[in-house]
């Protein structure tokens, strides 16, 4: 018979759990204090334990630690009130299988959780499922233990209706992780809505977040649905939350505290059940000390904090990342061993985003089957001054060979060394000029990830000229 240990000082809660599981055919043992726990002799007979986070004489985390040490096979569920959810999350990091909040609302869910743990299927799915989902979503975890621990923990807490704060340097993949959490949650079939708080002016951000009613201000010709309303029952991702103005921070705090917001110009409060995931490349605790971020808002956001390691702390994964990113470009190229070694040594201040951009730019300069030498990398990566950008001229590059042949023909014509049909030469020059323009445009579009406005700005062209050269109507 399966045995369940209940460590709980509230007698009514303990009696309820005992009755619930005895009716299901499980044997239960109830103790009400840390002292009684220490007096027990047979810990190994329990397969599951419900542990209250707060006991009169002991912290539940201490009992969790001791029980996992004495009976590693015993799955543990932490019981907590709302005010101690942050501590319960810490318990998961220390080995708890899950946590439930008091007062209990979904008794059936507790039964199902206990049944799965006692059958040893729930824990194994939690341990293995995180990697399968990451692969399915295209999240690259590599071999770095810190990344695997991060995603495994994110997978465990995804099903909980708690606010999450993601911190990490620019380009580490904070939105990728937020998407992963949404996909691992029970909200996966609901909307995932993201907004960059630093990319929108203060005057527009409030309208974007909360929406406005018709006639709320000049130009408000129709009612607008804000992000909180659009994401209700789903997930709202607030990227670069540190960039939100003090006025916006106050309004965000109210929504997090009450679940209510007011449209601009509106008089009726509206409710949202959106799950909030915030992200910042700035250390928000430091921002609080510098008086640029509200401490009470940080308290509301930082129920669970996930910190993504920078790429320089997972250098062992860079060769695999390079290969993965090359496959995404659909270019059949290979990086020389010394090139990869150079890229592994580089610190990557822009992290994954910078690495992906370097791969795209390098692939644009290469031809099919080319082995990429170190000097084809951007200056910062190959150790040169950023202004020095050396382009490798490969003798087997058909395009460059055509230019060399054309140059020799022009030279022969100029020197009168051989007869050249001028009209034929001019036609060849026009064709190659067009080929060169198209090649440079395609290369620049790869560098800007298809953004034609950026590409046009870099090339000193208009978007209309780009369409013309690419023979687009």
From TrEMBL:
Residues 140-364 form the Sigma-54 factor interaction domain. Keywords: ATP-binding, Nucleotide-binding, Phosphoprotein, Transcription, Transcription regulation. The keyword tRNA-binding does not apply. This is Response regulator of zinc sigma-54-dependent two-component system. PANTHER family: TRANSCRIPTIONAL REGULATORY PROTEIN. It comes from the Bacteria. The modification 4-aspartylphosphate is found at residue 52. CDD domains: AAA. Residues 3-117 form the Response regulatory domain.
């Amino acid at each position: 018979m399966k045995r369940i240990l209940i460590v709980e000082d509230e007698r009514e809660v303990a009696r309820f759990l005992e009755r619930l599981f005895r009716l299901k055919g499980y044997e239960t043992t109830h103790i009400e204090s840390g002292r009684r726990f220490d007096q027990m002799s047979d810990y190994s007979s329990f397969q599951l334990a419900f542990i209250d986070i707060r006991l009169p004489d002991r912290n539940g985390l201490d009992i969790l630690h001791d029980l996992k040490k004495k009976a590693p096979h015993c799955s543990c569920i932490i019981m907590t009130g709302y005010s101690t959810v942050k501590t319960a999350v810490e318990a998961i990091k220390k080995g708890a299988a899950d946590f439930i909040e008091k007062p209990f609302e979904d008794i059936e869910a507790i039964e199902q959780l206990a049944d799965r743990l006692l059958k040893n299927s729930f824990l194994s799915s939690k341990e293995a499922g995180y990697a399968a989902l990451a692969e399915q979503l295209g999240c690259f975890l590599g071999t770095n233990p810190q990344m695997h621990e991060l995603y495994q923990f994110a997978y465990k807490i995804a099903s909980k209706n708690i606010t999450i704060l993601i911190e990490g340097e620019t380009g580490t993949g904070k939105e990728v992780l937020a998407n992963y959490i949404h996909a691992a949650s029970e909200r996966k079939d609901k909307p995932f809505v993201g907004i960059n708080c630093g990319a929108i002016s203060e005057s527009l951000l409030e309208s974007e977040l909360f929406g406005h009613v018709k006639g709320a201000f000049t130009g408000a010709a129709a009612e607008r649905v804000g992000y909180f309303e659009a994401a209700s029952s789903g997930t709202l991702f607030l990227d670069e939350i540190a960039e939100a103005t003090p006025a916006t921070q106050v309004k965000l705090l109210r929504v997090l505290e009450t679940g209510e917001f007011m449209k601009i110009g509106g008089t009726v409060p509206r409710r949202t059940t959106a799950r909030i995931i915030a992200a910042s490349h700035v250390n928000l605790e430091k921002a609080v000390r510098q008086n640029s971020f509200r401490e009470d808002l940080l308290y509301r956001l930082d129920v669970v904090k996930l910190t993504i390691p920078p790429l320089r702390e997972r250098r062992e994964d860079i060769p695999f990342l390079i290969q993965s990113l090359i496959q995404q470009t659909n270019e059949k190229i290979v990086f020389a061993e010394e090139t990869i070694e150079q890229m592994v040594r580089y610190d990557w201040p822009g992290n994954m985003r910078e690495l992906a951009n370097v791969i795209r730019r390098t692939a644009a300069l290469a031809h099919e089957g080319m082995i990429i030498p170190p000097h084809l990398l951007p200056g910062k990566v190959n150790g040169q001054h950023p202004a020095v950008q050396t382009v490798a001229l490969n003798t087997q590059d058909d395009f460059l060979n055509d230019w060399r042949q054309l140059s020799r023909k022009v030279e022969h014509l100029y020197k009168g060394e051989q007869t050249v049909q001028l009209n034929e030469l001019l036609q060849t020059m026009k064709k190659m000029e067009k080929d060169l323009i198209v090649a440079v445009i395609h290369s620049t579009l790869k560098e800007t990830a298809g953004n034609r406005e950026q590409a046009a700005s870099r090339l000193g062209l208009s978007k209309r000229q780009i369409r013309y050269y690419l023979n687009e109507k």
